[in-house]
């Protein structure tokens, strides 16, 4: 019996990641909106697009046997859903850590965990394509700046994190486009040069 294989879920996962990231990054960087304004507009995106849709993309990558993509999409989908839960009053998370006077440190620790995880994914991405390696390198820098920004309550580092996050999102959109608009339809990915041997390369 032939093994069923799903369609490529990477464009969905990348677009879900990119769109949600670019909205939050614009708030963090003060692009088009005053810095420090409420970023709760991200909650719906973080739950349903960056969260649910990206996690589904990860599950489909598991079914397709793509370990790297499955781990990345599922994990960052969970990141967005957990971040949305923090911002949702009904969960009482943000109000409780604010009441304890440790909101900055708690959010910094939360982001530190993602700095560590993203570092592992960044190293793994160096066996994929050049653009994927650039994406995860910029994402790692983004999380580092945001972690410091939250921990030290620093507008400067939050702005830097938002700026790097904005660029990271644009690159994710670009990679999604290379999946959707390929050479057979007249689009050529000038940067799709594998950093690994062909047998080691795994599609995200």
Automatic annotation (TrEMBL):
Transmembrane parts of this sequence: 42-63, 75-97, 103-123, 130-151, 157-177
Location of the protein in the cell: Membrane
Membrane recorded as keyword: yes
Key word Nucleotidyltransferase present: no
Keywords annotated in UniProt: Membrane, Transmembrane, Transmembrane helix
Gene Ontology MF: a single term: acetate transmembrane transporter activity
Membrane topology: Multi-pass membrane protein
Highest taxon in the source lineage: Eukaryota
Gene Ontology CC terms: plasma membrane
UniProt-listed NCBIfam families: AceTr_1
Recorded family membership: Belongs to the acetate uptake transporter (AceTr) (TC 2.A.96) family.
Protein name: Ammonia transport outward protein 2
Taxonomic source organism: Furculomyces boomerangus
């Amino acid at each position: 019996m032939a093994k069923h294989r799903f369609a490529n879920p990477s464009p969905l996962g990348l677009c879900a990641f990119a769109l949600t990231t670019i909205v939050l990054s614009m708030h963090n960087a003060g692009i088009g909106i005053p810095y420090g304004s409420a970023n709760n507009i991200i909650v719906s995106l973080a739950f349903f697009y960056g969260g649910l849709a990206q996690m589904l993309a990860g599950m489909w990558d598991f079914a397709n046997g793509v370990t790297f993509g499955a781990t990345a999409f599922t994990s960052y989908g969970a990141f967005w859903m957990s971040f949305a839960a923090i911002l949702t009053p009904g969960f009482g998370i943000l109000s409780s850590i604010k009441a304890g006077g440790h909101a900055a440190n708690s959010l910094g620790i939360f982001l530190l965990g993602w700095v560590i995880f993203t570092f592992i994914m960044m190293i793994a991405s160096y066996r994929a394509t050049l653009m994927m390696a650039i994406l995860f390198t910029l994402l790692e820098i983004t999380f580092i700046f945001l972690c410091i920004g939250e921990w030290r309550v620093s507008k400067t580092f939050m702005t830097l994190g938002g700026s790097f996050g904005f660029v990271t999102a644009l690159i994710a959109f670009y990679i999604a486009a290379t999946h959707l608009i390929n050479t057979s339809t007249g689009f050529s990915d000038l940067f799709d040069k594998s950093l690994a041997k062909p047998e080691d390369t795994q599609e995200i």
